Amino acid sequence: xxxxxxxxxAGLAMVVFLAFGLRYYSRREARMVAMQAAQSxxxxxxxxxxxxxxxxxxxxxxxxxxxxTPMNAVLGFGQLLEMDDLTETQRENVSFIMRSxxxxxxxxxxxxxxxxxxxGRVTLAPQALDLRxxxxxxxxxxxxxxxxxxxxxxxxxxxxxxxxxxxxxSERVRQxxxxxxxxxxxxxxxxxxxxxxxxxxxxxxVQVDVSDTGVGIAPEDxxxxxxxxxxxxxxxxxxxxxxxLGLPIVKQLVEMHRGRIWMTSKGIPGEGSxxxxxxxxxxxxxxxxxxx
Length: 292
Known about the structure:
Elements: H1 2-82, H2 88-118, E1 127-129, H3 131-148, E2 154-158, E3 166-168, H4 170-186, E4 193-200, E5 205-212, H5 219-222, H6 235-239, H7 246-256, E6 261-265, E7 273-280
Helix pairs in contact: 1-2, 2-7, 3-4, 4-7
């Protein structure tokens, strides 16, 4: 009787074990099927996102070309008009056309740039670069602009003659500096100051500081200045045309150079802001677009 009871108990235990085992493996198989389905959905979503991103880039590229072609014609004829003997009113009207045309081209370039960067389609061609020469060219352009627009500003460059060269893409480094100086120009009132200071810091980098005496940036906005499309709440900022893409593009390009970028501001009108970035003095592996 004892043996019979023992066998019965063992049989019952075996049945229970098999039942739990089958249940465990059924659940495990169900989880694996669910994971495979989720993985398949993720791959499908990723493929769809890649196709959508490619379509967006292609659309923006084509639209950029279609918009730039007529705008270049408008600016070309505007330049011809500037060489004519115009009345003061006519000259002001032509100047307005030229400013508006250049602004539109800049917006087109910004939208196209951010799309290319996000798609990983921006590559750098680094070389030995003299930042002083780049800054001189950028400041010469903004000085001519201030004269054309009758907006007197004190524009200065502080950079030692023995400044070491950096390793960067000439076109993109100029774009970085041009965007920062352009921001300073927009938000600095008449008779204000814009200063570019370049110096070798304690590391293996050259640092550039772009300072102005403009409206400044409020403390609550400072953490968001490099966000796409964010422009703050200051009335002068909101009244100035722009997309809010300039600083995000600058940040991406600096990081592609393996540099750093930051800003400081007391948020007090008239005391302005300083945007600083670094570029390595020696060759480093550079990034490619968003995924670099």
